[in-house]
Hints:
The structure holds two protein chains of two kinds. Chain A is built from 14 helices and 18 strands. Chain A is of the alpha/beta class. In chain A, helix 2 (39-48) links the parallel strand 2 (31-35) and strand 3. The longest helix of chain A has 16 residues, at 73-88. In chain B, 31% of the residues lie in helices and 20% in strands. Chain B has helices spanning 16-19, 30-34, 45-48, 69-76, 89-98, 108-111, 143-150, 154-160; strands spanning 2-10, 54-57, 81-84, 102-104, 117-121, 126-129, 135-137. In chain B, helix 5 crosses helix 7. At the A-B interface, helix 2, helix 3 and helix 5 of A face helix 4, helix 5 and helix 8 of B.
Amino acid sequence: MGMTISQKILAFHAGKEFVAPGELVNCKLDVVLGNDVTAPVAIAEFDKLGINQVFDQEKIVLVPDHFTPNKDIKSAEQSKTMRDFARKFGIKHYFEIGSMGIEHCLLPEQGLVLPGDLIIGADSHTCTYGALGAFATGVGSTDMAAGMATGEAWFRVPESIKFIYYGEMPRWLSGKDLILHTIGDIGVDGARYMSMEFTGEVISKLSMDNRFTMANMAIEAGGKNGIIAADDITRDYIEQRAKRPYTIYQSDPDADYVEIREYDVSKMEPVIAFPHLPENTHPVSEATEVSLDQVVIGSCTNGRLEDLEIAASLLKGKKVHPEIRLLVFPGTQQIYLDALRRGYIETFIEAGAVVSTPTCGPCLGGHMGILAKGEKALATTNRNFVGRMGHPESEVYLASPAVAAASAIKGRITAPWEV
Amino acid sequence: MKFTGKVHKFGADIDTDVIIPARYLNTFDPAELAKHCLEDADPEFPTKVQAGDIIVADKNFGCGSSREHAPIAIKGAGIACVIARSFARIFYRNAINTGLPILECDTAIDAINSGDEVEVDLDLGQVRNLRTGEVYEATPFPSFMQEIMAKGGLINYIKDK
Lengths: 419, 161
């Protein structure tokens, strides 16, 4: 029996030739990640162990991105806890707010996560790095603490579902639409505990930015990880970024999958996930009656340069609807700078948008764009749970950057071809 | 470990944003988090919950964000145990790591109502509804995972080793 990429990565890091789904293995970690919300909890647990060093100062990454620039005194204390820890233990990859980014945009950009890596992060969207052919999964703060102390974590080797996408990508379709469609198909627990492997001719032509978006939302189907085999597109992306060796794995032809699902993308429309679950999906043409108060473009799901590029292309020379608040959040300082140099930021501001420093703030209802009671937002983010972006009686619709830009212009959910 | 307590019942896909909304994540003090536990699902829950009560929920409990504040908030609210048809995997791991007893029991969910008194035996993997006398079987956790929960979490378990 062959192995999937996920099995091969876990086997290598467990020092084994072969691992089977369901097997419990203890693995060495390449990267342990935390942010200003989860790391302080991990640091408190780490302190209880009473040890005076971390397992490796170069393999821990700490990013203040959730409530930064700090929204209140308590958040400032949490960031300080993380900053002090980073200084005390000589953590090499701590990113202060002038050099930071939303963690899952930042780590790939900085070449800190590479194909074949095994990564845990105290943030559920850590699965993003699977787009590079790495095994990356979200954990809680206690696992992060144990990871920082020992450089190891135990895993149950997941079963895998293979998703095959074929056909001609329509003009306005994006990785976001493919993953929303998939979650709509299998449900928010359709891949619970499992590995989601994204394959097919559509994926092999998809850009890195769109691949990150797909792997990012594996967790929204309950997945342990999302993974895409590294190829020439991956190599082009990491060529200038990687500062250490990496390994590219392929799934064996006789690897075991509990299920294989195939999707013809040719006739797919952009997808909208209605409140209050990412599985409540509808084609955009069924959603155009929904009027909006706010549109958010950004986040670890869709805050990359290509996302901003498509939004800017639609907003160029247009105005945001007078009853809409449009917020744009570039994913990292570098993306912000690139967008500025290419004129996207000017386009956004001239259209009437607000452009913010990178932060997770609005996506999780933390700060910077909280919704009032009864308000509706369309966002390129990843979750539309009750109260996710603010008041428990507010609503979030999830969509691609193209739909978001078009909707900001019209003031209601709008297909990109309408503007 | 055995618990007897009054049931608070919740539906499917109770996510960690609902268990403890991000607006309260600027602290991880259990007592502070407990004041807002599950308030977006049931605004009265934080005031009516009592020490030793038990949560019974449908599938995929704890989906979404990896915030360990979710099991910390539930534990802080005094909940003795969470029984669900299934758990999302990060929450499952976090509950064990923070010492919040949980049990996956498919058959118990439909037959238990809010307000019922139930008895949970984690060693045997049994749930008994004291109102009806019915007993539901679940797969018990392996002994090392029970020990982690009994010791109040992974760090205490590691320290004692």
